[in-house]
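Thread: Newbie trying to understand structure tokens

Hi all, I'm a second-year student working on a class project, and my supervisor (Dr. K.) asked me to get a predicted structure for one chain before our next meeting. I've only ever worked with sequences, so writing a 3D structure as a token string is new to me. If someone could post the tokens and maybe explain what I'm looking at, I'd be very grateful. Here's the chain:
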Amino acid sequence: MKEKMNRSKWLALIIVLTAPMLYVVDIFIINMAIPAIKKGVHATDGEVQLVIAGYLLGSAAFLISGGRAGDYLGKKKVFFLGMFFFTLTSCLCGLSQIALQLNITRFFQGVSSAIMVPQSIAFIQILFTNEKERAKAIGWYGVTLSIAAIIGQILGGYLVDTQFGIEGWRLIFLINLPIGIIALWAIWNFLEETDKETGKEFDYTGATILTIGLICLIYPLTEGRERGWPLWSLGLIILSVIIFIFFIRDQKNKLLLNKIPLIDVVLFKIRAFNIGLLAVLFHFMMHTAFLLMSAVYLQNGLGLSALDCGLYFVLHAVLFMISAMIASKLIVKFGKRVLQLGVAIIMVSFILQILFFKPHVSGLYVILLIGMYGLGNGLVLPSLLTVALGAIPPKFAGVAAGIFSTFQQTASALGISILGGIFYSVINMNHSRLNYYKAFTYGIAANMVCLCVVVFMLYLMPTFVKQDSIEIHTA
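---
Reply by user tm_fold:
Sure, no problem. This is what the structure looks like when written as tokens:
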């Protein structure tokens, strides 16, 4: 009986890992298809940026709410609904005829991912009560993310260059249909419902205010640049600042009234937490923008096919996975120095890319330098959260992780909008291959500025972060 329960537990893990797998695949798979999507739906540069940013924006706005929905309604039910709507919106993305349709459905695809992914993490906590088993399960969660990145890059390139009666880029969305159907069947038949927590309230107004603020910031950053910064775009950016200030006051007032806010703003009293958030902001802006710019440059600037472009990123994903595993062991002994080493490797990679990524560059140089970026990034990304959360009292780790995840997704959307905007601005001057190289160098230079801010934030952060002694009031 015990052996049967143990088998069912690991089977349940396989099922819940489909959520982060699909979520990450749909981030990486889109980068390989951006040139084809732009042509397929006759999109402008700003609209094609929103294809990526909108997905991240939808996810960022509802991650915390999605996690709490599982507590309130039952994790199996919410997981099932999230997977259902993710599958549905994926199909609608694949059937889109114009850029507006694609961007709307892509946003709601991001929202549905924010509903299902937090349940996956929560199920791991519930299924594996033994510390060793839980650590192993979380390890498989990390491996799944790395494998999903590799699958997304290769599969995206392959499907874009493939014709099955429809345009290849549509298949990168429609492939989620069979996977989603199998996952839904497995969720319904093999997962057990969790206990529902009573007394918890949704912060509907907080989630609405945050979503409106993010849209007012991200949309004008992409569309406004392309249209010459009309007054409405500048007005929306100013409005977003006002909305964010109002959001913070709203969250503080709810704490004073003993209500449960969307974000516990008291955590922002911890200095190391704030430093970590700024490091996350600039690092993820840089990282997401780099993936976009390099994929577009390799295809349109260097003339690679979508499949070759995907294959060029395989070494990047493999080295990322290896260095991330090494970093998880080194971080205990060396603290933030592991991250500083990773940032240094990334910086060297960027300098070498500017020097060597010229038209007619050898493919070997491209593969090795992108791989070098992956090596450095593996030392930074997984450990950044670990170091920054070291400042948080254990009982608030879950709330802090939710804030970090939201911040991470928002930063990624900003990276696509701001740094990607610099890249596309230079391209629009002249679509020659030489100009693509110029755009790439400008984009990498902007990435290096972001990286310098990360360096400064890491300098301010203690080597081994200790929990700050602050009084935190809860409802």
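A couple of things are worth pointing out once you decode it. The domain at 1-199 is CATH 1.20.1250.20 (Growth Hormone; Chain: A;). DSSP finds 17 helices and no strands in the chain. Feel free to ask follow-ups in this thread.
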